[in-house]
Amino acid sequence: MSKRTGLTIGEVAERADRAPSAIRYYERAGLLRPPRRESGRRIYDEDVFETLALIDLAQDAGFTVAETRALMHGFDRATPASQRWRTLAEQKLDEIVRHIERAEQMRALLQRLTRCQCHTLGECVRSRKAAMLAAKLTLRLT
């Protein structure tokens, strides 16, 4: 009987503190190379942990699965990692700025709503519409 070299999906999942289903998902999503098979079982090399760490780094930076896949496979092989990160980070930063602006708008609205004195929800809607119209008029006058 030959000795197996490599790691099963269960071993990878345990060492990486992930569920085996997450490992399979990363494969289907194109983030992990399909492993070799022995007797129908997935067998991974040690380099799988570096790839999983890269996936974690990208997730921590807010990248989606598609963006992570682009980072890993969407550039010419000769493109250095620094250029890949820069390209995707600049796009992500623009997106984050938009999210922050939206969150600030939501915070302002929620703060106004905590001071609401309306008796009906319809009154709230009319009041908000009036406030929005006044803000637009103010912007036009300035």
What can be said about this structure in brief?
This protein has 142 residues and is mainly α. The chain has helices at 9-16, 20-28, 48-60, 65-73, 81-114, 121-141; strands at 7-8, 36-38, 41-44.
Descriptive account of the structure:
The chain has helices spanning 9-16, 20-28, 48-60, 65-73, 81-114, 121-141, and strands at residues 7-8, 36-38, 41-44. A three-stranded antiparallel sheet has the order 1-3-2. It is mostly helical and 142 residues long. It is elongated.
Tag the structure with descriptive keywords.
single chain; elongated; 142 residues; mainly alpha; Multidrug-efflux Transporter Regulator, Chain: A, Domain 2; 2 domains; 3 strands; three-stranded antiparallel sheet
Structural class: mainly alpha
Average pLDDT, all residues: 92
What is the helix fraction of residues, given as a range? 55-70%
Number of domains: 2
Low-pLDDT residue spans: none
- Shape type: elongated
Supply Rg: 25 Å
| First-residue to last-residue Cα separation | 83 Å
What is the CATH level 1 assignment of the largest domain? Answer: Mainly Alpha
Order of helices and strands: EHHEEHHHH
Tally of alpha and pi helices: 6
State the CATH architecture of the largest domain: Orthogonal Bundle
- Tally of DSSP β-strands: 3
Share of β-strand residues: 5-15%
Instruction: Predict the CATH topology of the largest domain.
Output: Multidrug-efflux Transporter Regulator, Chain: A, Domain 2
Strand order of the largest sheet: 1-3-2
Largest sheet: 3 strands, antiparallel
